[in-house]
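User: Can you predict the 3D structure of ATP-binding cassette, subfamily B? Sequence below.
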Amino acid sequence: MKSEGVLKPYFKQTWHIYLASVTLHAAASIIFAYFPKVLGDFTDKLKSGVLGSHDVVHYSVLLVLIGAGYALLGGYGQYLVMYVGRLFEYMTRRRLFTHFSHLSEHYYSKNGVGKMLNYFMNDVTGVRESISMGINQTAMASMLLFSCVGAMILSDIPLYLIAASVGPLILIPWIVIKIGPIIRQRSRKVQESLGTMTESAEEQFGGIRVTKKFAVEPIMIKRFGAYVDQIKTNQLSLVRISSLFQAIVPFLGNLSLIVSLAYGGYLTIKGEITLGNFVALTLYVRMLMNPLQQIGNVINTVQRSRASLQRLNELMAVQPDIVEADNAAAANLAKSPICISDLTFTYPDAPQPALRHIDLVIQPGMTLGIVGRTGSGKTTLVKQLLRVYDPPADAIHIGAADIREVTLESLRNQIAYVPQDGFLFSTSIRENIAFARRQARQSDVDSAAKQARIYDNISEFPEGFETKLGERGITLSGGQRQRTSLARGFIMQAPLMILDDSVSAVDAVTESEIVHTIQQERQGKTTIIIAHRISALKHADLIIVLNEGEIVQRGKHEELLAEPGPYAELHAIQEEGSQYASGH
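Assistant: Sure. Here are the predicted structure tokens for ATP-binding cassette, subfamily B:
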């Protein structure tokens, strides 16, 4: 499906406001274009000696009315276009966030936070300036330009004098064609370097504690300084070409004024045009100077914003890797088995498969344990169940339905996934636990916290469950974060719960209590436990051992201990460590 970009939906909703603004600007410019003619007529009457007091009042009132009309109509037109410019920021940032929320994990693995923030901040602002200030100034300047030229043609000023006076302005379109693409290209480089710097800053701030612990501040300052230097280089390159362009446009306007003064003055001395026409001509040309300057600024801004617009349109054209089928149906994980048949999966751009020939049946209510070395494919396997990455067709079935033909909402709403990192949002503890159940009662939150063995820790905080986390609140330990994340999984009471090494940061006693709770609370519900410590999954109905993406062992805890293999070896190592730690 082809993307509409960012401007088409926006202009569909706001075109009538822009039309009203342009109409107001046109009316204001036509009114203002009478200013030189009125002043020229006043000059001719003054020179001829027929100017009376009533004429002075008449022309004064006309000039006041011209000024007031220009200010009121032009001012309201400017308000309208600036209003819809801010509306563009509102609409586009909402669309961007919605678009980001639908993109798959593969996109985020290749694009950093800094780059995405640059879309929200610099690119949206750049385009907004172009379509608000740019359109406002273009409308006002263009209308005034055409009004002045039209008024000049309709006046008694000879056409050959008008042509000679405005002749240098014909070069402006040629200059735009030559310099415009250069400005756009250099502006894109500036935006890309800003995104890289933002990404680096986000990483540096996130890792500032590590930096200080290893006392490598000079190295990080030097690394960040390199990104800033690149921005300076790109910006100076843009400033040089932009300054050249902005200098050429008013220069051509000044050249027009020189021609009108020299040639018009000569014709006035020769008596071929009146003094009033000469005054009107110079005023008209002088009035053209400001629109030309504005048009030069607008063209410069538009060329820079086109780079931002191109980046935004390219982003909106990115399609999610995970797409719901047209005939997708809701899944029922509570009653349907999960059948994995000859599953082989390779990450995009990866040289070899992460999973190879996986065959597995997970019955409803079963507890499945998954163990294996780091990088053996444990997390990759459960990501297939969540459709974070799409498995091959017919590789995974929920009941009789291919998982690719199941609605994403029904699938993910029935899975409580608890990752190892235990990410928490910068909000209250209660809101973090009730993240997937916003309307949960406090008793449900308390129960989930108790099941995750975090309730007592939360109760010790002065504000309890309303304690703020993150930058403006307290910082939890690794074990506390994991248990809070675990409570977020418990409160869902989902038919399928996936614990991805979710108790790795807790002590052995707490782990034992949590495992016991899982056995009690998850009876009759499907649970998948990924762990490095065998003690966390030895109660499982089925345990599989992964190695380099393949299932090398499967069975119950006692069965796997009875046969030689990696499971028994890992158990022996962990038992030996436990005995050593206990002093036996």
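The two ends are 66 Å apart (CA to CA). The beta strands are 338-345, 355-362, 367-372, 396-398, 401-402, 415-418, 496-500, 526-530, 542-547, 550-555.
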